[in-house]
Fold each of these.
Amino acid sequence: MVSFFSSSAPTQVLLNQLPTPLGQQKLSLGNKIPKVRTNYFRLISTSMKNVFDPAVTAELIHRIEQLQPTSPALWGKMSVDQMLAHCNVAYEMAFTNTHPNANPLMRFLLKAFVKPGVVNEVPYKRNIPTAPAFRIKNRRDFEEEKARLISFVEQTLAAGETGFEGKASPSFGPMTAKEWNNLLYKHLDHHLGQFGV
C-alpha cells in the first residue's frame, strides 16, 4: 500500500488511493476542480454602492417608489410606513438638528463598540437590536415618509462626497464621506430588502 505521506509516490497514485463515494468519479490530475461561488462564503465585507453616484441614487429612488402602503415585511415587526420613518432618522442625523449629540462618554462608547459595525461594508443581519432614536412606535403617514426619504436621498447626492467629508454625526462625531456612504447605503438597502424591493 502506498503511504499518503510518501514523497516518492506519484500524485496520480495517491489520488487513486482515496476512497470514492458511490456514484462519484475518482479525482485525476486532468479533472477540473469545480469553482465555488464566492457569495456562498459571505463572511466578510462586500463592496458598497456609492450614494453619491447619480445612477445609485436613481436605483434607490426606483426601489422606494415600488413600495406600497400594504407592502408586507419579509422579517421584523415594522410596517412599511414605520420602516420609511426609521430610514429617515439616519438622514435626519445628517441634515437636521432634530437629534441631540451624544454626551462625551456615550460618544466614546458608540465610536468604540457600535460605529465599526455601522460604517463597515458587512451587510446587516436580520432582526438586530434597534437604537432608541431609530425606534418608531406609532404608525406614520406612508406618502409623507416616502416623499421625505426620496428628498433625503436626493439631498445626499446634491451634497456629494465633499459635503459629507468630515461631517459630524450626533452619535459618532466627525466621519469620512466613505463612512457616511456605508452607513446610509447599507441601512437603506437592508430595509428596502426587508420589504422586497
Amino acid sequence: MEKKFDFRMLEVADTTQILQLRNAIWDALEDKTLFAQSSDFCISESLKNGFGFGVWQENKLVACIICRCQDGEYAELLQYSGQQKEKTVELEDVFVNQQHRGQGLQKYLIQQAETYARKIDKSIILATVSPQNLFSIRNFENMGYDVVKSCMIYENLERYILQKRLDIPKNDNDIKEN
C-alpha cells in the first residue's frame, strides 16, 4: 500500500527534524563533495529570514527545501545590484531522504518555492549544484534554470550557480546561449 505524504511550510520548530534529515543524507553519501552541509545556525537563520517547505510521511520529515530571502551569498557572487538582491530568493538546501528519491519530491519542492517566491514579489531564483551532480543539474535545467556561473565556494568546492527568472516566461523554443 502506497503511503501518503503531507506537505506544509516549514517552521523554526521543525529545525530538529531538518537537521536529522540533513545528517542522515550526509552519512549515506559516498561522495561528500556532492553536498555542502549548511550549518545548524544557517538553517535556523534561513527559516527566520526566508521560508521553506517540507514533506512528511507518518509524521517524519522525508524531504524539504529551505530558501533565503536576504543576505544571499549567490547574489553576491554574481555581483547583483541592490535592487536585484531584493528580488532574489536563494535555494539554500533541498534534502530528499534516500528512500524517497525518484518520486518527484525535489521538483515538487522547487515548484512550491517558486510559487511562494512569486507571492512575495521575488523574480529571481538562484541555486547551486555540484558539476558532478548530473541528476540535479538535469532537474534544474528541465525546470527552466540556466547555469550562469562556475565558482569555488563552500570551503573550496566547485559549484555551478543556476538562475531562473520568474518574470520572464520560458518556453521550449528558447535557445540557450553559451
